[in-house]
Design a protein that fits this description.
12 strands, 312 residues, single chain, binds NADP nicotinamide-adenine-dinucleotide phosphate, two-stranded antiparallel sheet, 39% helix, TIM Barrel, 8-stranded parallel beta sheet, alpha/beta
Length: 312
C-alpha cells in the first residue's frame, strides 16, 4: 500500500517531500527532482519562506507534462500570526498565490498557539495572543470555511495532542482530517498515533529521520546497531529503514532533502518491507526524544508553557 485514504476516498500518498529549511535557491530543483523520480506529495508552509520557488517548480512541472495538478498532493500550513478568523482566508490565498495553485489538497493549522496579527515572529510575550483572545476553534471554523469554498480539499492540524484534538472536535463539531506530528524511532508517540487511527484522523510523520540535529550528527538514529542490522538484512540504507518503519505504521512520512541522490534514496524506501521482528526491534528504540519542542513560544510572562502545548 502506498497511500492513506481520506473518508471521501481521496488519497494521501505515504511518501512526501519536506521543504522546511530548503533554501529558496535549492528547493526549486529539489521539487522538480522529486516529481521526476515519482514523489506525488509535497509538504509546504507559509512560514518556510519558500512557497514562491515551490510554486515556480510546480508550474514548470505542470507546463512540461511531468505531472498533472490532480496527480500531486500539496499541503500548506496556516502560521500562528494568522489565527484571527478574518486573516485565515487572506493567509491561505497568499500561499495559493505563491504556490500558483487554485486549490490545496490539505491546509493545516501549523501550531496550537496564536501570535498577534502582524507579528510573524514572537520575540516577547507582547507578540503573543492567548487562546482566550483567539480560540483555536474560531481559527479552525475559518479553515473549514476554506474547504467549503473549495480552496482546499482537506483540513487538518499539526502539533496537536489528544486533549487538543478532542477539544477542537467537541467545540467545533468538525474533526481534523489529518494531524501532522513529529515521529521517528526516538519519538514514537504510540498513544497519539493509535488515538488518531481509531478516530479516523490520518497521521503524517514530520522529522521522520529525527531532523537535521539527529541525522547529521553522531547522535543519529542511523547509528543504532539494530537499525544497521536491519538495513544490512534488507540490503538498504539506514534512512530507508526509518522511513519504511514510519510507512508501515500507516503514517505518511515527509523527509526533507535538497540532494538528488538522497531524494531518490528516500523514495525507494517504499520498496523496503520490514518484518514483525524488525518493527519490534525499532519499537525498542523509543526514548521520548522530542526535537521540535515549541520553545519559541515559551516566553517570559507569556501564555504558553511546554506542558501546556504538549501535555494538557
Ligand atoms: N508541522 C510542523 O510543525 C513541522 C515541523 C518540522 C518539520 N515539518 C515538515 O517535515 C519535514 C521533514 O522534517 P525535517 O526537515 O525536520 O527533518 P527530516 O526530514 O527528518 O531530516 C532532514 C535532514 O535529513 C537530511 N537527509 C534527508 N535524507 C537523507 C538521507 N537519505 N540520508 C542522510 N541524510 C538525509 C537532510 O539533509 P539534505 O537536505 O542535505 O539531504 C536534512 O538535514 C520538514 O521539511 C517539513 O516539511 C513540519
Amino acid at each position: 500500500m502506498n497511500i492513506l485514504k481520506f473518508s471521501n476516498g481521496d488519497n494521501l500518498p505515504l511518501m512526501g517531500l519536506g521543504t522546511w529549511l530548503s533554501k529558496p535557491n535549492e528547493v526549486y530543483n529539489a521539487v522538480i527532482e522529486a516529481i521526476k523520480c515519482g514523489y506525488r506529495h509535497i509538504d509546504c508552509a507559509y512560514i518556510y519562506g519558500n512557497e514562491k520557488e515551490i510554486g515556480d517548480a510546480l508550474r514548470f512541472a505542470f507546463t512540461n507534462g511531468l505531472v498533472k495538478r490532480e496527480e500531486i498532493f500539496i499541503t500548506s500550513k496556516l502560521w500562528n500570526s494568522d489565527h484571527a478568523p478574518e486573516r485565515v482566508g487572506i493567509s491561505m490565498r497568499k500561499s495559493l498565490n505563491d504556490l500558483q495553485l487554485d486549490y490545496l489538497d490539505l491546509y493545516l493549522m501549523h501550531w496550537p498557539v496564536a501570535f498577534k496579527t502582524g507579528h510573524e515572529q514572537a520575540k516577547t510575550a507582547n507578540d503573543l495572543a492567548s487562546l482566550d483572545e483567539i480560540p483555536l476553534e474560531l481559527t479552525w471554523n475559518a479553515m473549514v470555511e476554506m474547504k467549503n469554498l473549495g480552496l482546499t480539499k482537506h483540513v487538518g492540524v499539526s502539533n496537536f495532542n489528544i486533549a487538543k484534538l478532542n477539544k477542537l472536535s467537541a467545540d467545533s463539531g468538525i474533526k481534523p482530517e489529518v494531524n501532522q506530528v513529529e515521529l521517528h524511532p526516538y519519538f514514537q508517540q504510540n498513544e497519539l498515533v493509535e488515538y488518531c487511527h481509531s478516530n479516523e484522523i490520518l497521521v503524517t510523520a514530520y522529522s521522520p529521520l529525527g531532523s537535521r540535529h539527529l541525522i547529521k550528527t553522531d547522535e543519529g538514529i542511523q547509528l543504532e546497531k539494530s537499525i544497521q542490522e536491519i538495513a544490512a538484512k534488507h540490503k538498504c540504507s539506514e534512512t530507508q529503514v526509518m522511513l519504511a518503519w514510519g510507512m508501515q505504521r500507516n503514517t505518511s512520512v515527509i523527509p526533507k532533502s535538497v540532494n538528488s541522490s538522497r531524494i531518490i534514496e528516500n523514495l525507494e524506501a517504499m520498496s523496503v518491507q520490514l518484518d514483525a521482528d524488525d518493527m519490534h526491534q525499532i519499537s525498542k528504540l523509543e526514548r521520548g526524544q522530542r526535537m521540535a519542542k515549541g520553545l519559541y513560544v515559551v516566553l517570559p510572562g507569556g501564555y504558553y508553557t511546554y506542558e501546556g502545548i504538549w501535555e494538557k
